[in-house]
Design goal:
Layout: H1 3-13, E1 18-24, H2 33-42, E2 47-51, H3 62-73, H4 78-91, E3 96-99, H5 102-108, H6 110-119, E4 124-126, H7 135-139, E5 147-148, E6 151-152, H8 158-167, E7 172-175, H9 189-201, E8 207-210, H10 216-222, E9 228-231, H11 233-239, H12 244-259
Parallel strand pairs: 1-2, 1-9, 2-3, 3-4, 4-5, 6-7, 7-8, 8-9
Helix pairs in contact: 2-4
């Protein structure tokens, strides 16, 4: 049974939606990253997405690209990400999700990657640049060992959404807008209509929405329609250079986002 799905089921039944926080592994300071992530959990995050640094993160905007580049310069690699995950899994039983790109994972070896990820305490995997029609070949027999989380967008066809729902495990990640992360957009009636339409096509999984979740108001608008929200670029931006003041500001942001995930 999926640890991620079980956690979502329990949270929703307890009238608390999910807050998932994306962190670029090793950013802003590789030596204090585990302490930062622990504090993120303690401030209200339900899941942490550990972003594996990559030199060409196509789905990510400037903010996460820069954090990824800095992490690479600081020597962060997949092995180090697993070391972080091991430490965090010993600290908290909340789910950890790895988010990365296909090329470095293929270089590592997909079966070895998934096995090592699972052994380090990672429960889910997001690889946004694996085409849906290559899913079966890419994951082969490894997809049962860890939750493979797929993404859908406002422009996805009904057939594609159904296929994504069938193949995803843990949840379906709904990308609230076209383009890369970090671009805030107005959440209007059309945005909600698109989400409601896509939600109606997804029967197997819960839906979490990400991209453009930067403020508590954003959470307020989306949370009635989904099982949770994902915030990344706003968190990375808030962390800045990792000063005490910037970290405290970030922890306050996490707490404020989580406060809007309560169902009254």
């Amino acid at each position: 049974m999926s640890k991620i799905r079980n956690y979502i089921d329990k949270s929703v039944s307890d009238k608390s939606k999910i807050l998932s926080i994306f962190l670029t592994a090793g950013y802003p300071n590789p030596n204090s990253f585990v302490d930062l992530a622990k504090s993120i959990f303690d401030s209200g995050a339900d899941f942490i997405e550990l972003g594996i640094p990559f030199s060409d993160p196509l789905a990510d905007g400037y903010i996460i690209q820069q954090s990824s580049q800095q992490a690479l310069e600081n020597g962060i690699n997949i092995k180090k990400v697993f070391e972080y995950a091991q430490s965090l899994s010993e600290y908290s039983d909340k789910p950890l999700i790895a988010m990365g790109y296909a090329n470095p994972i293929l270089s590592y070896g997909i079966k070895s990657f998934i096995s090592d990820a699972k052994n380090s305490g990672i429960s889910g995997l997001i690889i946004p640049d694996v085409p849906l029609d290559e899913y079966d070949n890419f994951y082969k027999d490894s997809s049962n060992e860890i939750d493979i989380i797929l993404l859908t967008t406002p422009t996805s066809t009904e057939k594609r959404i159904t296929n994504i729902d069938n193949k995803s495990k843990g949840f379906v990640y709904y990308v609230s807008m076209t383009g890369t992360t970090g671009n805030h957009h107005e959440i209007d009636a059309k945005s909600i209509d698109n989400l409601v339409k896509i939600q109606s096509l997804i029967s197997k999984n819960h839906v979490l929405v990400g991209f453009g979740i930067t403020t508590p108001i954003d959470v307020q608008k989306f949370i009635p329609h989904v099982a949770g929200v994902i915030s990344g670029s706003a968190i990375i931006k808030s962390l800045g250079n990792g000063t005490v003041a910037e970290i405290n500001r970030t922890l306050k942001l996490v707490s404020n986002l989580k406060a809007e995930c309560k169902v009254t």
